[in-house]
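Bumping with the actual sequence this time:
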Amino acid sequence: MTIVSLAARTVVDFDRVFAQMSSDPPDAVLMTSDPAHQGHMPAIIDFLLNNRIPGLFQTREHVVAGGLMSYGVSFSDLFRMGALYTDKILRGTNPGDLPIAQPVTFEFVINLKTAKAIGLEIPATIIARADEVIE
């Protein structure tokens, strides 16, 4: 496996990266949740779909929008943890006395409609492991 990092921070960068991927298509693209990428996500997902490139994301929302699959923290779980900490602080607990918490719940989401559109068959064993399957 060869990993190639393609940096994109501006609209011009995305045009350059899309052109590079068009001329030398990757087997798959792993997207980060970099804030600079979030505003371009619709264009990224459209590019991947139009070029039949599997896209792997960190949030469920990108899979709902047409990405192939995601694996990342459960935002509802993070918000619930945040609410518990907020409650403790409002009841007088010193924030410095609260333990540092890390995410404990992760979600694996697959979009079978996207898989079909890009000509990819997802094995049943992988589908069985998904927390959510979008059909």
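The tokens above came from a reply further down the thread. The CA atoms of residues 85 and 91 lie 10 Å apart.
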